[in-house]
Amino acid sequence: MPTPLTRTLMLNGRRLAVSVDDGAEDLLYVLRDRLGQHGPRFGCGVSQCGACTVLVDGEIIRSCVTPLNTVAEGASVETLDALDADGTPNPLQRTFVEKQAAQCAYCVNGIVMGSLGWLRQRKAAGDTSVPSEDEIAAFLSGKSSASTFDYICRCGAHRRMIEAIRQAAPEVLA
Amino acid sequence: MTATDISRRGFLAGIGSIAVAFSLGPVAVRPREAHAAAQAQDGLRIDETGDTGSLSWLVLTPSGLTIHSGKVELGTGTQTALTQIVVEEMHLDAGHVGYVQGDTEVTPDQGVTAGSKTVQNGGPQLRQAAATAYQALLGLAAQYFHVSKDQLVADNGVFRLEGTDRQVTYDHLVAQAAVVLTADPKAPTASPADYAVVGRPMARADLPDKLTARFRYVHDVTVPGMLHGRVVRPSGRNARFVSIDPDSMARAKAIPGFVSVVQRGNFVGVVGRTEWAAVQAADADTGIQVDWADGEPLVPQDSLPQALRDPSNQYASVEMVNVGDVDQALASAAATREASYFTPFQMHGAMGASCGVADVRAAPDAAGVQATVWSGTQDVYALRGAIAHLLGLSTDSVRVVYEEAAGCYGHNGADDSCADAALMSQAVGRPVRVQWRRQDEHGWEPLGPAMAHDLRGGVTAGKVVAWEHVLCSPTHGSRPNDNPGTLLAGALTGSLPATLPTDPDDSAGRNAPVTYAFPNNHLTGKLVRSFETTGTTSGVPAAPLRYRFLRSTALRSLGGLSNTFANESFLDELAAAGGVDPLELRLRSLDDPRAKAVVEALADTWAARPKGGNGTGAGLAYQRYETQFAYAAAYVEVQVDMGTGAVRVPRVVVAHDCGLVINPDGLRNQIEGNVVQGVSRALIEEVLFDARGVTSVVWEQSDFHPTPQYPVIRFDAVPRIETVLIDRPDQPAWGAGEPTIGVIPAAIGNAVFAATGVRIRTLPMTPDRVLKALESG
Ligand code: FES
Ligand code: FES
Q: What span, in angstroms and rounded, lies between the C-alpha atoms of A88 and B105?
């Protein structure tokens, strides 16, 4: 039987409590249907595409397979929705527009949030070198040491995205 | 928008506006004045239900430019290109054009948005509309100054009176106007030589909002009181509903937020107050368990190549080209070849699983609307008819509103998911949003069909003297129409699908005819029945519906991808047989100078190609889209791992002529997308199925999905892409959404041949398949 749950989260820096009838409800539905977030999207529901990516305590998370009851009390959750909350777009948001690095853009949430999490992790580990195009491609193909997550873009905007990430990287790593 | 007010099937163009009617579709503007009836004293009601029903409107108000159009944006930047055309003709430097689009209440019926034709068909008409509006403005400015038009100079939203410092803004003129016009085909347009906006890169208007999650896709639509639905599909394509296990039903009912199970025929869905409740109720582990009776088996996948060629599976054979005498020419040719090619079922595989929202009421509202559907469909009008018949409502009482979905690349699950939502909404009397699972999309979306090709050809003295192509294919066109059986939910509730097409034109036969001047040339299209029909030569579905093959429809470039794979690979075979350079053979066989130009644009790259052998090589392919539109040629380099058979594509160069280039960066983006999807379809993609139905239901094999699945290309496999755009400013602008994808598989196959000496005639060129071919030499 489902167990109700109330969780306190720091959603994009704002403290709030969310209650669900079933603590096993995946974070994706909690964020979209209860907390009004539109960045994370349903792509596959089985952790294979990246559309639902959010950062939880800085970690890259596939929210479609992350039950709320596995998210720590008080955890910080960051979504695409608030990346430009201070009025300035995140460097990745800016370079994706500059490079026109999308077609339908359904995938960009995953690719932006995933690479943001990755670049921040590199920085936190003391590596501020700008990754090469091959390194970026390897990360987004789940073939880097950092992550085994694959990101899909069905429209074929891959090369522009790789360039946009590379262009934004110095600022994210600074 | 202050001065135009949208109402049922029309809008108000009040004082303070100039409205110009035009056609965005292939049909010319009807030769009748736009119908406008004086209504309230503050404006004119433009009635789109009358003779002007197929028209679009360009509306100028002081607050901006708006296009009311039945065409929809498909994530390809079409709006940006159309905006550039308007801005150019209005003599503006830059500008924003708003779009009110794809709503059966407020926009006209312009048919389907597909086949990369929006700019091609609509661009010239829109240009005339903008030029007409500009002339109207110019006339108003001349009146304003009491001068003749030629004393005025337009400068980015302002008319200046020559030789003075007097000026008047467009906005000021528009604010006083109440003008309704039909686009004047003779209104003078800007000369291509003077283009300042057209032909320059322009950023897409939609991207900033998409990057900040402000953009609303159909998946984000919410309606007050909206519930959430999930579907539970049958165990197979021909399976029948038996029952729902009562214990599992009780379990589902206990789920917090559970609302209802909706079952009609073979359609089963669940509805919940929350999405999570629906997810749980639809899951056989936590919710309902449905008992299905397996139906007749599908034709086995491994027999597809023979089955497509089997006359008992074909209901028609159509001669598409018949020039000269192929048999005679083959008998006397210096060298001859025969070869067979095959492409499997492939899927659209939208990044976002399909989603639809429907609000079906018990009775019509004051405006006569009883059902409203929000959809990522390519054709709001066709979907409206299908949904109306599915629900048993009059077409007039159904409203379909377009909301952008993830890129669709053809007729995918967008329409079907709305039908699911409509059925469930009607059953529960509340608005319902249906989000398909990935497994629903991969498992049940209408697919691009498998195709088989048999070719024969002959070369003498370095020229192709004989060419024969026989293609076999199920339909590439099952788009919705007034028949509810064109929707999956309709077929599951007992309606029969549409009659299969009687000829391969613009379906299986797309790009089957080559545009080479071969003296003896024969082409036959054999049409394969997807389901049992009423007779051996009938394409009419027999009742009860029984599928032989998976349901198929329009996938990017229709039969074009497989036809060009076969044609352009086989041309390479003939080049090898005749000892001719493949680029040279193409040039020799073409007589259209624009066709030659795109091939020649690759000549330097071709000359500098890797020599071939040791697993490294390069290949070429060329086509003219639909044999009459854009020209595309591709050069592809491959690296074949001789130990594993894995093919890598490190570099692709595309030469492209689609006439006037409106937005070069947008065009490059489109071409790149074509290349990437083409590489994916050539190397990786194959729908897998068993006797019941599709077994490749997610992107990757995993512990939860232990059998092979349906992956698409990943970031580390995407080639570097160079594009050579041949701009023809004095020629019509043709669409670019599909021309390039067709040449990619053949160019890869030809490169693999150059690299290994082995020809791969079956897609996709997976490591296993390539390795087997390498081993058998
Ligand atoms: S939706 Fe979560 S990874 Fe695809
Ligand atoms: S831009 Fe459409 S899926 Fe990536």
A: 38
